Amino acid sequence: MPARVRRRGRPSAALLLILPSIVFMAALFVWPLVSGIAQAFSGPDGPTTAYVRRMADDPYFWDATRNTALLIVVLIPLQFALAVVMALLMRERPRLAGLHFYIWVVPLAISDLAAGLVWLSIFTDRGYLNSVLDQLGLGTYSWLSFEHPGTMFLAVVIAELWRATSLVFVIVVAGLQGVPRDYDEAAEVFGATYWQRVRHVILPQLRPSLQVALILRTILALEAFAVAQALTGRNFPLLVGETYQWYYTLQNPNVATAIALVVLTLSIVAAVGYLRLMRRHPEAR
Fold it and tell me: Does the predicted model carry a pTM greater than 0.85?
């Protein structure tokens, strides 16, 4: 039999290499997605939108949507500003740079729930913050009371800022390792200030790392749950927290799945939007 005929009967090397990824995606993403859509849009009598309408009629759903969006809008810019500043500081190689790095990435090793409990011990009525205020004669304050939504939101933002900024920091530090110092030094020779070098030399070359960090962090912010749950319970509802409430407390997995599909849709829209927004145009290269 000719060699060409024998090769036609074999799968190509490219197909063999990509086959595990296809199986993995089908088993862990496509099949759960199809099952989730079927669960959200089917009832005992066949296809239905009753569970989606039940989700939309729940006032907690809209509060959770608003709180999740507000958390992303406030938290993500703060985290990126802090992470870029810390990474630029590390690039200057200060004394004890290794120690600074390990201290800043410690929150990565702490679980979400543990981080929430740490900050609960600070913001609760009998926590460390009120103890300090009382010692100073300033009186105590119910930071996590539902009567004070502003301070409740502030506590969640501070806790998430502490817990998750290190992820962005690690990605930005890794990206800075690939930025040649020659460009920066050449710009300095031509009289560029430090801010001008950061803006026109370093940040443009960090675009791929920032893009990855932005997509990851936004998706993780959409999935924020344990920290807010530990601090505020359902007084500050978030979307993923509502899936938990509907699945475990209210025993309605269909509505829980409908909310999960909303989170998935928002994650996909955010990822595609970032990819299109930060796409490098050919003429800009």
Answer: no
